[in-house]
Amino acid sequence: MTASHPQSGNKSTALILVDVTNSFFLEGMPNYYPAAAEVVAPLRQLLAQARAAQKIIVHAVEQHYPGFDDYEWRKLPRHHFIGDPDAAFFAGFEPAGPREIVTAKRRYSAFFATDLALFLHEQKIERVVIAGVKTNVCIRASAQDAFASGFDVVVPREATNSNRPHLAEASLEDIDRYIGKVISLDAALGMLA
Questions:
Q1: What confidence tens digit (pLDDT) does each residue in 111-161 have?
Q2: Which domain covers residue 117, as residue numbers?
Q3: d(C-alpha 133, C-alpha 139), whole Å
Q4: Would residue 4 count as lying in a domain?
Q5: pLDDT one-digit tens code per residue, 182-193
Q6: Cis peptide upstream of residue 11 (ω within 30 degrees of 0)
Q7: Counting CB atoms within 10 angstroms of each CB, which of 41, 70, 89, 116 has the fewest?
Q8: Does residue 157 form part of some domain?
Q9: How far apart are CA 186 and CA 161, in angstroms?
Q10: d(CA 96, CA 81)
Q11: What is the CATH number of the domain that holds 47?
């Protein structure tokens, strides 16, 4: 049996949307950056295509427990407390329907210390399309852990970015070389068809 290429069309594919929350997309929120607006339309296309094809959609969102310490505060200001406006889904990206799940994460990766890998393996998912923000932090960490968990990883170039473009480019280069494939939005939409 030969190994299949990550871009082969017959793989069972899920969409993982990372941190599509108010924090990054609404001006005045803690992690807002203007360039985030550039990925909204591609993310909407991916979500619509995955819904139309009844693919599994994972909404991976950073959430922290109010009133408790969190190791992440050693590197970042306090943010994304459960129930706070910055942690809410960005308008139009709220989970809808039985094929969509929410994975709450307390670190950058959607896979670290969550049951996401277990869930996706149980659903016979082989490939994940990972999109959202930010390329050099949560996208890269999620892609690396998806690869380590045994999934073929694809990242649509137009559906992720960062407020540090040089780091976003370096991360995409590393993802394509060592972790998975960086592909066009059209190619990703085809995988979700």
A1: 999 999 999 999 999 999 999 999 999 999 999 999 999 999 999 999 999
A2: 13-191
A3: 6
A4: no
A5: 999 999 999 999
A6: no
A7: 41
A8: yes
A9: 17
A10: 22
A11: 3.40.50.850
